[in-house]
Please model this.
Amino acid sequence: MYTTKYHKASDAANAASLLGASPEAKILAGGQTLIPTMKQHLAAPSDLIDISGIAELSGVTIEQRKKLGVLKAKGGETITIGATTTHYDVANNADLAAVCPAITGLAANIGDPAVRHRGTLGGSIANNDPAADYPAALLALGATIHTTSRDISADDFFTGMFSTALNEGEVIKSVSFQAPANAGYGKFPVPASRYAMVGVFVAKSIDGDVRVSVTGAGDDGVFRHAGLEAALSSDWSSASAAGVNVGAEGLLSDIHGNAAYRANLIGVMAKRAVDAA
Amino acid sequence: MTEGIGARVLRKEDKRFITGKGRYTDDIIEPNQAYAAFVRSPHAHANVKGIDASAALAMEGVVDVLNGHQLTGDGIGNIICGWGVTSKDGTPMNMGAWSALATEKVRYVGDAVAVVIADSAEIAKLAAESVVVDYETLPVVVGSVEALADGAPQIHENAPGNLIFDWEIGNKEPTDAALASAEHIVEMDIVNNRLAPNPMEPRSAIATFNESEDHYTLYTTSQNPHVARLVLSAFYNVAPEHKLRVIAPDVGGGFGSKIYIYPEEITCLWASMKTNRSVKWTSDRTEAFLTDAHGRDHVTHAKMGFDKNHKIVGLRVNTKANLGAYMSLFSSATPTYLYATLLSGQYNIENVYADVQGVYTNTVPVDAYRGAGRPEASFVMERMMETAARQLGVDPAELRLKNFVKEFPHQTPVIMAYDSGDFAANQKQAMDAADYKGFEKRRTEAAKRGKLRGIGFSNYIEACGIAPSAAVGSLGAGVGLWESAEVRVNPVGTIEILTGSHSHGQGHETTFAQIVAERFGLPTENVAIVHGDTDKVQFGMGTYGSRSGAVGMSAIVKAMDKVEAKVKKIGAHVLEASEDDIIIEDGAVKVKGTDKQMLWHEVGLAAYTAHNIPEGMEPGLKESAFYDPSNFTFPAGCYICEVEVDPETGVTKIIQFTASDDFGTIINPMIVEGQVHGGLAQGIGQAMFEGVVYDPDGQQLSASYMDYCMPRADDVPMYQVMHQSTECPGNPLGMKGCGEAGAIGSPPAVINAITDAIGNNNLNMPATPSAVWAALQEASKQAAE
Ligand SMILES: Cc1cc2nc3c(=O)[nH]c(=O)nc-3n(C[C@H](O)[C@H](O)[C@H](O)COP(=O)(O)OP(=O)(O)OC[C@H]3O[C@@H](n4cnc5c(N)ncnc54)[C@H](O)[C@@H]3O)c2cc1C
Model:
């Protein structure tokens, strides 16, 4: 690793100001992505700003839905997850599992135990790896990303592979979304890395809006799939998902699978996600 | 005797390994140690126009930056290939020069052009990045077929058309005639994928030059430290043998890749002399992908003929073997004598002919990797047999049974003389255990669940216990392949076995002790195995080719014979009995039929005090032996793999893997089963997960675990491993060897099973989900047409 200066930020605002102070500074959360890239000399931040100990950035809160009218339907709670909440803590939060099992299940299948104990939601979405799992969830759940300077909708936040709407000196504090009426995630792992070759997150809001996002497959990162959204909006069933003809245009080809294979997997994973929902 | 031959003795070495107390090369710290980092070519083929190391030299903590011109200027010799292969036309192979540090030209990505020596590994690495090399890039070729094509880039001047050798074996005209008149012909193109060896411990070396004694010490990750010393001394001119000590301490796996003497060890030794510092280098995982000798990489066309009774009448094979950018130590032998000599398989075939072209490409050198040539041979044979059965419409087990060699010894048309075996017995044992009869029912049941179930055989045979020295010498080997042992009985009766074999995961400390326990009736804890240090142990040939049992232990047996003879003489003398009446059992020397005895340690003491030994006898109790085998050994077996494929995704799950092996005598079944489990995982890895992928520019696209898929525990099934053995007549213990069989036998079983499941025989390794899915699409397209 190149030499770097380590800072322990006291709170989110302090982290943002330290980050803004140097153009080559970087936030350090779980370090599961950043440290390996530094070891390989692929990244050389001048300063590392460690946000791992900041209380206000960590944890899950679930706000019950205001009582109005019929209350039997599932979903609608407002879920907020702090940026430094680890994958392990998301995966093992029983309250969260009760209202949105799709996201706890997703977190439980990220990487290996070491990665899950260190890696964080904020780090995952800030990095926006084109094969990462959380971006798919946040996009399909219509989440809002809260930073030290503003709120950004997931639709605006993910701007292409390894690219986000974050400005310099901006730190993610948390994400929030409304618990869906129904949601599921189908992940097909790359055999070697076990990142997603294709991950499809399907979500239906309490208002009946359907959003479907795809990770791993796009040649420019996570994206929403209009064809699947239309099909599932009119008929929320795995048969309906399976009936969509998924094209290979805009999909990634690499040594693990070509675009045609990924297109096939999008259909299959969408079907399985609906089944799992 | 609970610890003798056949006992499941727990591995003596495991206490230190599983408690993290192993002592590996990188754990060794010398005072005043410096670190080496190599400047490696980012280009697969380029002329080196100049090296500017001024920025590196100016960095604090940098000791020196050394290059290939300095290295050759100091008389360090080129890296050799230890086996000369002669082409069809009688000409010797065309070997290009390989300098530990390239001077004029680089030929693969990772080729070292300079080395930085610095006070810390980090400084060395940073400084290496600052060395500016002026490259003039050249056209690149990565595949053996492309490299042989007209107009391909020329990699070594003295290997025109990149052809290193064009070698042949077997009886050509009779084979062609047999094929021409055959009733049925089966013809296939078969690719054996390139693998990266990936031992858990990366390669490492620490070299110390002691100026006052003009002496070098090298700790290194080697499977054969004695051979390393010989080669470093005789060919690389580092130092004469008596001025060079090579130690291979605990070594964390090798799989063949640590047989060879690489540029890095040579450079560390030389750099230690240049800088008067101990110089350490430890590969990181990326460097391992870029520089550890790869395995396999064959492109083969094979043609097999059958008569109307489905007897094989002939086999003709052509293989283009990619040897990479330089010829590694055994690179020429692996795709020739270790490969094509097994192209008769378990079958009685009168006519076999094979020719092999060894080819230079702009890739990492390719050499022996667990199985070395025999996995490639068994893949050809067993894919051919399964395919033939499908084309002839007969049961694959029946077809094999009909063609098995049934009488021994059996001379094949391709050099090998099989000494023993009972192939039908292994096949029957495996078929019963796998419930082959019930398969169609299981297939139907799986189909109801939407899954495609398939089953595949592999009846492999391989040649181990390498090798009779005179025989391999006549075939071009530069060394003899005997083994040495010394049995030292201490005055207190404990025993040290000094062996020329080297353990890097095989469990020699346990199994070797077991044969001593068996012979003298002693507990294994009284026996220590010493290996891996050229100052402690007599010259030996090391561990590879499943030779440490059949050859290494045979040498120990020979030395024990001599110890036993002397012990009996001492016993007879002290106990005043006839030598013929002396027996050794339960740790005592006894007079048969009486209660007279000496305890084992009393014999040791008698030998060393020499107060009362037979007149004229030398004091002491220490004997040595060299054992040269009379033949190869021939482990064989039958593997049956059963899979289920998910047609939606192409994901293959191995439901059951059954292995029936004939390893001859088994010393420690637990260790043997462990070797088979590991070998099977490696073979399944080759068949379904692993593969080195190059882009056309010669860059590895699979040079990390993000992209190179090693099999993991949840990828492999619970194996059914069993034995059905015939004793090997060629060595005193009757052993055949078990270290590579799993990796040799399993890939064809897996691919035969998957192709059976999907109904498309056109499937290359690794059969990843995407490859299987594509093959399924192809099959349904063909069905539609
Ligand atoms: C072996 C392995 C397997 C993995 N498998 C998967 C997988 O299957 N699926 C998957 O989705 N991921 C996987 N990952 C990635 C893992 O989820 C990482 O934890 C995650 O990508 C990064 O999180 P982190 O907290 O470690 O971030 P860090 O490595 O600390 O940081 C990553 C980047 O985000 C920035 N950053 C971090 N936090 C913030 C913040 N609050 N505000 C602004 N910027 C921030 C950092 O500056 C840095 O640029 C894997 C990683 C490994 C090592």
Summary: The pocket of flavin-adenine dinucleotide is lined by residues A 26-34, 51, 83, 110-112, 115, 118-120, 122-124, 126-127, 129, 132-134, 171-172, 194-195 (CB under 6 Å). The radius of gyration of chain B is 27 Å.
